[in-house]
Every structure is written in C-alpha cells, then in structure tokens.
C-alpha cells in the first residue's frame, strides 16, 4: 500500500462531523495524494462500489453508521496555475480548508470569495452543495472540478456548466458518492464588483467605520455577522442551515404575504417562483430555542439545529421531521433538509 494511504478499522466519526454525533465507520481511509485513490479503494470494502467522502463533516448528519468505507482526502496544496493580470486560475486540493482558501486568495490579491468567508468545510465539498452566502454562490467562481469515479475507475474534469449548479445543488449532490472530488480550480478576478446589497453587510461595514471597502473588509464584515448569528460548531454542534429555503409558486407566496405582511420573500428561480425564508417559517412556528433533550434549535437562528452534547443523529433527525411537519401544517410549504443525511431517509 502506498505511504500516502492510511486505513483505520472501526473508526469513531465523532470528531469528524460538526454535529458531534457518535457514529462509527467500518473503515476510514485517508489519502494524502489523490493519485493513490484507485489503490486505496482496492484495499477497502466499498458499498456497491461507492465510498462516502468526508470533507469537514460540516454538511451532513449521521442518523446511523455509514455502511461501507469512509474516505478522507487530505491533500492540501494550493497553486496559482495561470494569471494574466486580470484574473488567475487557482487550483486547490480537496482537503484544503475552505476558509483558509478564502483568506489565502484575498492575501494574494484576488477578489470574489470574500462573501463566502468563514463557511465551515473543505474545498472538495464546496461544489457539492454549491455553497453560498450573502448574495454569492461558489458557482460564480468555479472554473473546473476534478473528480475520480470509483464505479469505473475514470478521472474527470468538469467545467462549470458540466457541474450543473443550482441553489444548494449540483450534479455531485444529485448522484451521492458517484464522484470523489479531488481538486477544484477557481477563476478569481483581480478586481470584482463587491456585493454589498445582502441585508446586514452595508450596516456592518458602516459600524466598522469603512466607507471604501476592499474585498478583505467585506470578508471581515461577513466574519463578524456569521460569528454573531451562527453558533460556532466548535462550541455547539451544528451543520449550519438545516433546511433549504423553499421555492414556491409566486401565487402561493403572494397569498402568504397577504396573511403575513412581515414574511420575507426573495427572488425565485424564475419569474413564476419565489424563495421563502425557512428560518422565518420555523421561527413563526415557535421553534427557535426549542430543546428536546440534547437535540435543539439554536436560540440565535431558527434554521440551525444544534446538539447540546449527547444528541444522537436519529434524535436530531426526529426533531427536524417534527419541525418540517409543523411548517407544512401551518403554511402548506414543504421544507427539505440541506445537509446530507447518512444512514436514514428523510
Ligand atoms: N429569520 C427569522 N428568524 C431567525 C433567523 C432569520 O425570522 O431566527 C429571517 C429574517 O427575517 C431574515 C431571513 O430569515 O431576514 C433570512 O435570514 P438570514 O439572512 O440569516 O439567511 P437564511 O436565509 O436563513 C441563508 C443561507 C445561509 C447563509 C445566509 C446568508 C440557506 C439554506 N441558508 O440563510 O447559509 O449564510 O443565507 O447568506 O440558503 C448554510 O447553507 O449552511 C448557511 C448557513
């Protein structure tokens, strides 16, 4: 076996998911160099030829134990592949910490990723759910995604269009585990029009005393807002937003707005749809700060489920189901989980 591969049997995943729930992997395979992947996968028992790739474990809920091997790609190289004075192509290995890449790209003088500061997780995970925050999605800056397909042993390079990005969605999310993402290339401009229109950013910059913000200032404002609004997973287990903001027909949004004038309504995916705020709907059902034993809803943000210590994944999932049922009963709006649920069906 290559020195770039480490295999542990019956490994605890508690430190490897930001909910901090107890789960065990029959095999945990760590691979430093993606070139060793085919070899590593030969050595581990897969489930239907598939392995669950774990990044920062910040967007999944272990509602049960994973059945086959769990794979960690730990390569951490970042390289500028090309630069023409206007923009650079920056390639990062899957194992690079996302927030580290954001800070590094800003320090190198590239703009674009500032609104995505402080999102937990790794570069390899960022395309899967097309991470987004404060008016920016990572799809806006992804040039290509490199991936290995264990099912047929092929290597792929998907350009931006081939990734089929949508709101918290991509081809990788649609076919779980089919592709193991090994590296991502980003196209980053030297100058970018800053996106300051999302609620809170302008106010935060003003409070910081900044009137001509740089991309780094915007990142600092986003960091401050996130630290205030979202519980730190290192302190209180959570996976960020637990539900996606639901997209509903415009007519349904209009009817709800007439009944609830304070309800936030955002642009949908087309002229006939609108995006509602799952946080607002859940809050209106009285869930904020609710606690069932150690499974709870953050007192700071209604969209964030939290583990107060000893909650199991099944308990968190049970709470999530009750929340979704109450939103459905009160508003007739279905809400769906954003994180991946392992070991159970939604
Ligand atoms: N709101 C409430 N109650 C709350 C919190 C929020 O009513 O407890 C209402 C507020 O009226 C607010 C609205 O919900 O105007 C939206 O809240 P927020 O700006 O916090 O954004 P969000 O829609 O809840 C989304 C993303 C977050 C991202 C923020 C900022 C999704 C599922 N979530 O949350 O992403 O950080 O916008 O851009 O799209 C994540 O994906 O894990 C995540 C944290």
Task: Please give the structural blueprint.
Blueprint: E1 5-12, E2 24-31, H1 37-43, E3 52-54, E4 60-62, E5 70-73, E6 78-83, E7 87-93, H2 98-107, E8 132-133, E9 136-137, E10 142-149, E11 154-159, H3 171-174, E12 180-189, H4 201-207, H5 215-229, E13 237-241, E14 247-249, H6 250-259, E15 265-267, E16 273-276, H7 278-284, E17 291-292, E18 295-297, E19 304-307, H8 313-331, E20 340-342
Parallel strand pairs: 2-5, 3-5, 4-20
Antiparallel strand pairs: 1-2, 6-7, 7-12, 8-9, 10-11, 10-12, 13-19, 14-16, 15-16, 17-18, 18-19
Bound molecules: uridine-diphosphate-2(N-acetylglucosaminyl) butyric acid.
Residues 133-134, 198-199, 229, 240-241, 244-245, 264, 277, 279-280, 283, 288, 301-303, 338 line the site of uridine-diphosphate-2(N-acetylglucosaminyl) butyric acid.
Would you summarize the structure shown here?
By secondary structure, the chain is of the alpha+beta class. It contains 8 helices and 20 strands. β6 and β7 form a beta hairpin.
Describe the structure.
With 346 residues, the chain is of the alpha+beta class. It folds into 3 domains: 5-73, Uridine Diphospho-n-acetylenolpyruvylglucosamine Reductase, domain 2; 78-189, Uridine Diphospho-n-acetylenolpyruvylglucosamine Reductase, domain 3; 237-342, Uridine Diphospho-n-acetylenolpyruvylglucosamine Reductase, domain 1, CATH 3.90.78. The chain contains 8 helices and 20 strands. The protein has a 5-stranded antiparallel β-sheet, with no helix packed on it. Strands 1-2-5-3 form a 4-stranded mixed β-sheet, covered by helices on one side. Strands 13-19-18-17 form a 4-stranded antiparallel β-sheet, with helices on one face. The radius of gyration is 20 Å and the shape is globular. The chain starts with a strand and ends with a strand. The mean pLDDT is 96. The structure holds uridine-diphosphate-2(N-acetylglucosaminyl) butyric acid (EPU). Residues 133-134, 198-199, 229, 240-241, 244-245, 264, 277, 279-280, 283, 288, 301-303, 338 line the site of uridine-diphosphate-2(N-acetylglucosaminyl) butyric acid. Uridine-diphosphate-2(N-acetylglucosaminyl) butyric acid binds next to strand 13 and helix 7.
């Amino acid at each position: 076996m290559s020195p770039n591969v480490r295999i542990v049997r019956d490994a605890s995943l508690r430190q490897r998911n930001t909910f901090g729930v107890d789960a065990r992997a029959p095999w945990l395979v760590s691979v430093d160099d993606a070139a060793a992947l085919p070899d590593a996968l030969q050595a581990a028992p897969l489930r239907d030829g598939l392995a669950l790739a774990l990044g920062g474990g910040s967007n999944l809920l272990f509602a049960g134990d994973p059945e086959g091997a769990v794979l960690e790609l730990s390569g951490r190289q970042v390289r500028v592949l090309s630069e023409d004075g206007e923009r650079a192509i920056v390639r990062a290995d899957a194992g690079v910490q996302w927030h580290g890449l954001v800070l590094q790209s800003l320090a190198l003088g590239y703009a674009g990723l500032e609104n995505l500061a402080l999102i937990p997780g790794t570069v390899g995970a960022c395309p899967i759910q097309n991470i987004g925050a404060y008016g920016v999605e990572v799809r806006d800056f992804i040039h290509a995604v490199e991936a290995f397909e264990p099912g047929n042993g092929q290597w792929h390079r998907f350009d931006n269009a081939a990734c089929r990005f949508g709101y918290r969605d991509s081809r990788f999310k649609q076919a779980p585990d089919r592709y193991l993402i090994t590296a991502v290339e980003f196209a980053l401009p030297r100058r970018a029009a800053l996106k300051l229109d999302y609620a809170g950013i302008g106010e935060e910059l003003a409070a910081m005393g900044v009137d001509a913000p740089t991309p780094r200032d915007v990142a600092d404002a986003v960091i401050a807002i996130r630290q205030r609004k979202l519980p730190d997973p290192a302190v209180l287990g959570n996976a960020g937003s637990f539900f996606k903001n639901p997209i509903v027909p415009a007519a349904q949004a209009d009817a709800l707005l007439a009944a609830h004038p304070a309800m936030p309504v955002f642009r949908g995916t087309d002229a006939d749809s609108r995006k509602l705020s799952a946080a607002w709907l859940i809050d209106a059902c009285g869930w904020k700060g609710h606690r069932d034993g150690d499974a709870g809803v953050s007192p700071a943000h209604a969209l964030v489920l939290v583990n107060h210590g000893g909650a199991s994944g099944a308990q968190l999932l049970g709470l999530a189901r009750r929340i979704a049922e109450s939103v459905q009963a009160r508003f007739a709006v279905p809400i769906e989980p954003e994180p991946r649920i392992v070991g159970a069906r939604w």
